[in-house]
Each structure stands twice: as C-alpha cells, then as structure tokens.
Amino acid sequence: MPTAGWKGQIPSLLRLAAPVVGLNLMTVLSLFVDNAMCGRLENNEIVLAALGYATSLVFLALVAMMGLSVGTVAMVARSIGSDNKERASEVLRQSLVLTVGISTLVAVVGIVLGPALLDIMGAEKETSRLAMSYLKPVFACTVFYYLNILFGATLRGTGNTLTPFAIAVVVNLLNMLINYGLIFGAWRLPRLGIAGAGYGTVISYCVGVLIYIGYLRWSPNRPVTIHRLRAKLDKPLLRQILLVGFPAALDMVVFNIGILAIVRMLSFFGDPVVAAHSVGFRVSGVAFVPGLSVSQAAAAIVGTALGAKDTQKAKDTLGAAVSLCLLIMTTLAFFTTFFAPNIVAIFDIDPTSESFTPAVTWIRILGICMPIFGVHIALNGLFQGAGATWITLRINVLVTLLIQVPLSAILGFVFGLGPAGVWAGFPLAFTVKMFVLGWLYKKESWIKLGKDAVGAR
C-alpha cells in the first residue's frame, strides 16, 4: 500500500498528529476521570453502570457534530491548500450557524427523550435516575461541547493543532478540579455525586469556548477568523459542507447504534456487566487515541494535498499513516492485553466484584482489536480527508447491521458465550471494514468521489 515517498511524509504527519494526540487524550481523559472519581462513590457499580448508559447517549448526541466537523475540516483544508483563507473563514462561519442550530435541537431531544431511551437500553430505575442527573446539565449545555469540537476541527484543518491542544489542557485541568469539588463536596462546594461530573464538564467547556472565541477574533496569528453572523446563509457552500459532513454524521449514528445494541444485549446479564463495559469503553477511548489522532492529522493533510491537486502526496500520507498506526496500536495492544487487571484496578473495582472479570475480558478483547483498528482508522482518515464520506458510510451500514450486531447476538446468546461473545463481534466487524476499505483504496475511486464531494474552487 505505501508508495515510494511515504517515509518522507512521516515527519510532517507526526508534527501535526502529536498535538492532536494530546487534544484527544484531554477529551477522553475527562470521561476517564469521571469514571475514576465516580467509581469511588457509594454503590459504585450502579454509578458506573449509570455512566455507561449516559456515555452511550452522549456519544449518540455527538454524531451530528462529529459529522459537521469532518465536513468543516475537509473544506477548510481544501481552502488552505488552494491558498484561500477568506473562504476558510467563511466555511467556519457557515459551520458555526449550523452548530448552534443542531446543538439546540439535540439539547431539547436529549432532555425530553433521555429517560425513554435509557429505558429502551435496559437501564434499571435507580440507574436511569442517576444517568439523567448526569445527562441533564450535559444536554442543556450541548452548544458549548459542540463549539469546542468545531473550533478545534477548524484549526486542525488549517494545520494548527497546537492551539486546540493548549486550550484542551486548560479545559481539562479545570474540569478535573471542578469535578472533584462537585462530586465529593470538596472546598465547600455542594456534594452532587454523579451529577457533579456533569456540571463540572459543562463549566469547563464554557471556559474553552470563551478562549477559542478570543483567539479566533483577536489573535494576530489566527489562520481563520470569526465574522459576525449574518442572516443570509451561503447555500452553495453550506451544501458542500453537508455533502461531506452528513454521511460522516450518519456513519457515527450507525457506529453508535452498534454500540447501543451491545449495551442492550449486555443489560440482560445485569448492571455489573454494563459497568464493566463502561470501564472498558473508557480504556479503549484512551488507548485508541493515538491511532485516531494520526487519522485526523492525515485527513487534514490529504484535504490540503487534494486542494493543491497533489494526489501523490495524499497517497504517501496514507502510507505513513498506516505504518504509524500499525506500530503504535500494536505496541498498545501488548500492554493493554497483559496489564488488563491492573488497568481495571485503577477504577477501584474490587477483584471479587461481579464487574472485575468481565471488565478484564472486555479490555483484552479490545487489545486484540487495536492493530486492526489502527489500519482501519488510517484508511478512514484518507476517505474523510478526500471528502468521500459516502463510501465509509455504506461500508459501516452494511458491516454493522449485517455482521457486527447479528454476530454479537449469535455468539453471546445462541452459542452461550455470554458477554465475551457479545463483545467479540466488535473486532470481527472491524476486520471486515479494514479489508473492504483497503480494496476500495486500491481502486482509487476515492480521488474522483472526493473531488466531486468537496467541489473546491
């Protein structure tokens, strides 16, 4: 797969990816810290199960924004590649309007339908109550969460990954301090338990938005700027953003449907298993960050390369991304698999509890999946950077609905493998996705589809 010049792209890819790794780690770390702190509350198995259900809904709520951010990165990168900074700023303005509208809709739907969705997922009454105490502040302030994602994605599309990382450091340090105070009632703050994790997260993201706005409006080094919102939208530009972003959003919806289906299946085995899933999911969020970050950096470089009509550079970038992802994720797989019990102990879960052994099993399954995920996510970054998101959407729909979900059900219930069988469908599905994307890459249809999707001027 790597072309003759792929090694030459590694230094530039690493320079761009390193701060993205830090940024994504900061984002995931906030969830990780929530789990670690809440795991020290009374009835921690119920609390962790509540966080598991709540996090699944939060990820589902993020799909629209993640899709929009993919479209924004592709359009901004293409504009920067063609040396058109004014157009890049206009892409940000249009995306900003969309973000405010989408976040308002998500906030209302999340608060109103949250209890019903938790019930559908199989959450017990007390678990659902605790989950909603976390979700209400998070959903009510969705706009701040979304804006952090949008501003970070925009700067990444310009090749500036250091600024989002620096802001993420501030936001997450603040998040840890406020969460500790509100969860445990430290420093004369009210003791809110799991709800305190939600309020702490919201407050820290509000601060992040203010920092981003200050940078994008007044910093002399800003690559793009925020214009005042005007009533009239740029419909052709908006359509181009959505052509790339909408399939990416649906892609995330399908992925989360697969995750929710797993949670629903696990609910039949009881809250301790759902709590174990929550722990493993947090761990995977941290462990998968390096590969995901390389993919995001590669997407930005691919978009810029195609904007400059340099197809060979896009191919070389993929070769570098696959090599880096495979090396990094294989190394992490080794440590994750062999030190799974030690990792679970971080969450203060007693080795004799009903959650401990399932959590270890789930983490080890994820460890086996990591090299496969690394190659898959590198390929995914190429298609997203090219704007050919309809390709990845179709693959994800077919594999998730026709292979992953049925296979998890068959292995878990028909063959009697229990939670391990349900989880096993996850790496098997990623293996299929990886091979299909590799085959489509070699056909090079992504080049034409990417140009048609983004339609750069």
Verbal overview:
This protein is an all-alpha fold and 457 residues long. The protein has one domain (6-454). It contains 16 helices and no strands. It has helices spanning 10-38, 44-81, 85-121, 125-140, 142-157, 162-184, 194-218, 235-267, 271-287, 289-307, 311-338, 340-345, 356-386, 389-414, 418-443, 445-454. α2 (44-81) runs parallel beside α9. The two termini are 30 Å apart. 58% of the residues are buried. Residues 453-457 have low confidence and may be disordered.
What's the helical proportion of residues?
over 70%
Q: In total, how many beta strands?
A: 0
Terminal CA distance reads: 30 Å
Give the rounded overall mean pLDDT: 84
- Rg, please? 21 Å
Proportion of β residues?
under 5%
Major beta sheet, specifics?
none
Low-confidence stretches: 453-457
- Sketch the topology as an H/E string, one letter per element: HHHHHHHHHHHHHHHH
Principal-axes geometry comes out as globular
Structural class: mainly alpha
Q: What is the total number of structural domains?
A: 1
Topology:
Layout: H1 10-38, H2 44-81, H3 85-121, H4 125-140, H5 142-157, H6 162-184, H7 194-218, H8 235-267, H9 271-287, H10 289-307, H11 311-338, H12 340-345, H13 356-386, H14 389-414, H15 418-443, H16 445-454
Helix pairs in contact: 1-6, 1-9, 1-10, 2-3, 2-4, 2-5, 2-8, 2-9, 2-10, 3-4, 3-5, 3-8, 4-7, 5-7, 6-7, 8-14, 9-13, 10-11, 10-13, 11-13, 13-15, 13-16, 14-15
